[in-house]
Amino acid sequence: xxxxxxxxxxxxxxxxxxxxxxxxxxxxxxxxxxxxxxxxxxxxxxxxxxxxxxxxxxxxxxxxxxxxxxxxxxxxxxxxxxxxxxxxxxxxxxxxxxxxxxxxxxxxxxxxxxxxxxxxxxxxxxxxxxxxxxxxxxxxxxxxxxxxxxxxxxxxxxxxxxxxxxxxxxxxxxxxxxxxxxxxxxxxxxxxxxxxxxxxxxxxxxxxxxxxxxxxxxxxxxxxxxxxxxxxxxxxxxxxxxxxxxxxxxxxxxxxxxxxxxxxxxxxxxxxxxxxxxxxxxxxxxxxxxxxxxxxxxxxxxxxxxxxxxxxxxxxxxxxxxxxxxxxxxxxxxxxxxxxxxxxxxxxxxxxxxxxxxxxxxxxxxxxxxxxxxxx
Length: 376
Fold this sequence. Notes:
The protein has 376 residues and is α+β, with helices and mostly antiparallel strands. Helices cover 30% and strands 20% of the residues.
């Protein structure tokens, strides 16, 4: 399975194509729109979310809400395009309008100009913008529906915002009770995190956070220990790291494993009924030797603070080469809830690809049959 996306932040829209989906998968468009709305929500979001009200449109590959086996094309149109058409239209526009030369530290602006040429960072930021993740959420939700058809569920929550961290441990079922404003689990911690976001807004600053993701129901043996590119933890980490602003990914204990003794890290194996096995702990996060072991997959991703600060950081104008304050674009103070939703979607997309590579079938009923015959 292959997923490709296209589109610019202030262009006509965002577009995605999913190739390799089996025929016969029923598509719930309301669920896709629901996750698109979640991506736009969360305490600390900016004014752009009041302009766009994202909805998905399916352009190909689906008939009467059921996949055909052909490429599925998705569109999320930008309402704000009408306000930018004069300087963004591919048919012809005024490229001298709304240029950005005061490149922003922490963004793709300057490095992108060095790579692709030019002096207007608008050509870089329009694609590097996290607005692109809207169509990734749409595609990821389609993949979520495929995984659900096999009994595989994906969820998550926000574990920390800035230096406000929740060290509690929660069951998969408990995650359905995550709190709306920030997707945290502890009301007291969430209130503290919201106060931190308010303080950042007052100071013209931003903050990031950590999201924890879980996968339940994935059977053992997905991924491989035989070749490096097939290692499941490597593939999932790559998928999460591809999300804008993510700077680190952990599996299971993650970095904490480095400070513990082996007896406190590795999950002991015990004989189970009917010749099976079980583990009393899941410090490995459901992945051993680059393969799923049948336990819950546990991943955490760290999102850096958004690089567009309203007070602007010191930088250089790439045309005049003068020292200036960085440009400000309409932006968020904190987007960790949105990032969590995007991370779930990226995880669903990569997992769906891994599953289909192993099971290989053109029809959903064949995929389900092959998955049902796998050992736990």
